[in-house]
């Protein structure tokens, strides 16, 4: 696999596929709804520790199901991604993307192939949080 591709497994359906850098991903899944279609009441367990942190992005409901990618600063071609999911606590709905197991450093966040935030700092043993609410229905609006 070249440095311009990445491979991953989607939790919940187990299929693996590659992405070319610069693509517009289609994450529709055969035989049913996407992973993001349902509310997610389950707890989120974060991988944190020495030199390893996490990032939580709070988003508007309009971003539900939108894929957010993350790359280490200076390594734009190697990205991980998460969908904005509806998470529930009682009657309260929150729309979040959660990245954990991130090595301490700075990162770029991408929406639809466009850098939305750069130099996002991740500290080991800590959870960084970005508030992307209040941007209406434009997931590419500046943070």
Produce the secondary structure layout.
Layout: E1 5-9, E2 16-20, E3 52-59, E4 67-72, E5 80-83, E6 85-89, E7 92-103, E8 105-111, E9 114-122, E10 127-132
Parallel strand pairs: 3-10
Antiparallel strand pairs: 1-2, 3-7, 4-5, 4-8, 6-7, 8-9
Q: What is the overall pLDDT average? A: 75
Structural class by SSE content: mainly beta
Instruction: Tell me which CATH architecture of the domain at 35-132 applies here.
Output: Sandwich
Q: Number of DSSP strands?
A: 10
Give the termini distance in whole angstroms.
Answer: 33 Å
What is the fold-level CATH name, i.e. the topology of the domain at 35-132?
Immunoglobulin-like
Give the strand order, joined by hyphens, for the main sheet.
Answer: 6-7-3-10
CATH class of the domain at 35-132: Mainly Beta
Instruction: Identify low-pLDDT runs.
Output: 1-30, 136-143
Radius of gyration: 15 Å
Percentage of residues in helical conformation? under 10%
By DSSP (H or I, 4+ residues per run), the number of helices equals: 0
- Main sheet: strands, sense, barrel: 4 strands, mixed
């Amino acid at each position: 696999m070249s440095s311009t591709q990445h491979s991953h497994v989607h939790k919940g359906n187990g299929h693996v596929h590659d992405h070319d850098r610069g693509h517009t991903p289609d994450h529709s899944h055969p035989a049913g709804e996407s992973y993001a279609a349902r509310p997610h009441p389950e707890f989120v367990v974060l991988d944190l520790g020495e030199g390893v942190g996490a990032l939580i992005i709070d988003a508007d409901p309009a971003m539900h199901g939108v894929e957010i990618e993350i790359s280490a600063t200076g390594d734009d071609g190697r990205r991980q991604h998460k969908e904005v999911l509806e998470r529930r606590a009682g009657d309260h709905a929150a729309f979040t993307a959660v990245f954990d197991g991130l090595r301490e450093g700075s990162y770029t966040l991408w929406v639809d192939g466009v850098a939305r935030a750069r130099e996002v700092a991740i500290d080991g043993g800590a959870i960084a949080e970005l508030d992307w609410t209040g941007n209406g229905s434009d997931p590419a609006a500046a943070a």
